[in-house]
Design a protein that fits this description.
alpha+beta, 6 strands, 3-stranded antiparallel β-sheet
Length: about 130
């Protein structure tokens, strides 16, 4: 699997707010490695420990996280010009009159993983408020 620089950057931003466990078969990079080459974790601690491994999220990681937080994707588009957009709806809304209004946000990026990571980051930022 290939990760763009933007996707790696978003994974770093997510890791500042939420550090998912790295398990066998997960993608990761070694923090501080100037080359930032993504690698599969195969259950061995090479000369580094799990603390220096930065998890790289996949689309399924993002969807699982959003589902756990009560959010879900309501729209996903492969837009014109090599860009993607998704709209997520989260459970953390507010009451208006007699009904619960959910929060809906739209994210745009060059790939589906990029927009999913932006959605995860937005949920984490909302939680930290």
């Amino acid at each position: 699997m290939k990760f763009t620089k933007e996707e790696i950057s978003l994974c770093k931003q997510v890791a500042e707010k939420h550090r998912k466990d790295i398990e066998h078969g997960d993608w990761m990079i070694i923090e501080g490695d100037p080359h930032e080459v993504p690698a599969l974790y195969i259950g061995q601690d090479f000369p580094v420990t799990k603390r220096t491994m930065l998890p790289l999220w996949t689309i399924s990681d993002c969807l699982e996280f959003l589902r756990e937080k009560g959010g879900f994707i309501v729209n996903a588009h492969d837009d014109i010009g090599d860009s993607f957009s998704i709209e997520i709806e989260t459970a953390n809304g507010h009451w208006k009159g007699t009904r619960w209004l959910k929060t809906r946000k739209k994210f745009i990026g060059k790939g589906l993983l990029e927009v999913c990571l932006k959605a995860v980051l937005a949920v984490l930022e909302e939680e930290s408020k």
